Predict the 3D structure of the following.
Amino acid sequence: MNSLINTSRPPVFCPGCSHERILHTLDKAFVQMGLDGNQVVIVSDIGCSGLFDTFFNTHAFHGLHGRALTYAMGLKMARPDLKVIVTMGDGGLGIGGAHVLSTCRRNIDLTLLILNNFNYGMTGGQCSSTTPQEAVVGSGFLNQLEKPVDICQLAAAAGAAFVTRTSSYASDLVDEMIAAISFDGFSVVDMWGMCPGRYTKRNKITPKSIDADLVKLPRFQGPVPENQRKEYGSGYRDVAAGLPTPARPAKIEARFQPPASGRQEVLILGSAGQRIVTAGEIFCLAGMTGGWHATLKNDYPITVLRGHSVSEMVLSPQPVDYTGIERPTVVVAIADEGVGRRKKMLARLGGGTLIIKAAGVTLPETGATVQEVDFKAQKIKAQDWALASLAVLARKDRVISMDMLKAALAVRFKKAILEAALELVDRVTD
Amino acid sequence: MALSFIEGNEAVALGALAAGCRFFAGYPITPATTVYNAMLKYLPPEGGVCLQGEDEIASIGYCLGASMAGNKVLTATSGPGISLYSEQISFAIGSEIPIVIVNVQRLGPSTGSATKGADGDIQFMRWGSSSGLPVIVLAPVDVADCYRLTVHAFNLAEQYRCPVFLASNKEIAMTRESVDLDAVELPDIITRKAADRDKPFLPFATSNDHTAPDFLPIGDPTLVRQTSSTHGVNGYITVDPDEIQAFQLRLEKKLKTHCDEFALFERDLDPQARTLVVAYGVTARAARVAVAASRAAGKPVSLLIPKTLWPVSERLIVDTAAAYDRVVVVEMNMGQYVREIQRLLPGKTVSFLGQMNGNLIKPEQIREVI
């Protein structure tokens, strides 16, 4: 096998930069693994490690600072057969920390090579997430106040299945790289090195001192026993293959003659837990069985289990343009929370509007025709009041008929729930 | 007539599937989340991929990776997410990575009101990336448009290799409507043009100065380079000012030269009218009602609904407005697209009606300014 080094673009690292050692070691790993250039993608981050893709005859993807793992994730999910290698410095590690942790949790088959030289080489030697507190760097005193991160412990804690901590000068570096690239899951290789352009000018560091520092730290070399599990992509495809094909949206046939003509605006004012949204949907489906067009808007707070729940429905023989409600034909008021959201509108209404009001609900002064229904006395639970109100309307042939309502229930519900709903709408009296 | 009852966001997902989308990634955000929900329901069982990113930056990053592997990709978010997408959008513009971005606009600024609609990102989508180079923005009016324009958005992204926004709005995205999707006329599906493998591949070479380069995916037998750095036709960094200028010019011209070809719009013109109403998105629906009411009351008025907002279809606007003394622009913001109309129609009276309070602009409000 031949080297994958791009001979037309010779490496341009500073003399003595450990990145160049890593570059040639990575090439050796490719050669020993028998990989062709078109089987490999190098996704490079920003900074000096971001030059890697240029120096290889492989597929290349060079993007934004810290985001290399995000592109690698998309590439690998789309093309699981490719060997995807991400090169990143300690800078990318810091700015892209969320992506590093997520990729560890996911265990997707990518190899992250961290070219860890303890500073931002390209921008002037500022401190990074791995700069020792005692180092002298381009960020003045700031690094003295921040503890460097141990990326290997962090990666293992986040679920990385393969973590190796080593020196860029390690004699077995090529074997470590091959092990990482061959591993079927996410592998992280933290390679400590020297930045002669910036860091080693003011901080004494040698291959020997790196070895001495590494010995003091928890050892990481290869698979992390407690994190062994299935690779994400193959797990994803296994699960997906077993999923049933979902049905496309149901089609509602027009089967009935609606009892009203012209645009009908209906409002349901309720509270969380009263199944307002479902009632709104059923009302619209009922309208559609009458050949009407329908729109449904829902308004509820982010606390979905508490507070108001309001549905606004428009039925019309023509497609609905404006979906707002100005002059409702019917208002269903079944909770004070909902009424509170539309007080101004309720006060404006005239006798042309019918308000179906549950007993116990307080309305503001209004000119609308109000009909009170005591659902409690009919032993109907509050969660069914919205549907029961639709039955009251259907019984009166107001906007929808009972045939339309029952047809809508049959579209929306199945089996026991359908039976219970049909029983309810038959039982309600006004 | 058999109608389905779906919201705009589900129609977007169905449009994406119709266009051949194979990859979705997004981060949950109201009111865009249900695009993600629908893609999660539909894509994996069909062998596609739907992912939830750890944040918005990751979500669009996954999409860019998958797009370069040859997939048609979709993401969906709202204003706060577009902010986080910004640098990745710049990348997609400069490195010509096809992607469709659904922006379900909500009331801002900032986190604003998650469940209230607005059209507050109209200039943001155009200018919210470094470089100022153009993007394509399509604005749906209703659920049927969410379906149809999503297919157009994919076609344009593939043809011009650029980000294409669908400028949706909570009021369309989360409003359920009866719609006959089978009756919606869809364009023929376009897929990015593959490069000729018999010739040496240059990832950014084009035959002229106003088209996108032919494509080969990362993972092809031929090696492919992609880079966010300023690059020459070979995909390597260039410092040659002439090459850089030609490249920037091509990114501008590839859209602006062709924008009349994809100027989507609706027009309802009355030959007696002296006033032209211009409205887009959900507001166009109130404008239709207002225009019909105005005519019924004996006051003729015309309506233009642009659906391709960016690049501005200058010829369409100038030609359409030529016959009118007065143009009324209505939008759910404090005055964004009206700037383009004013720019194009010097000498005409351009009135503006805007509202940004979380409510739809009412037909009556539009009638008052007509």
User: Anything to note?
Assistant: Chain A has two domains: 18-241, 264-427.
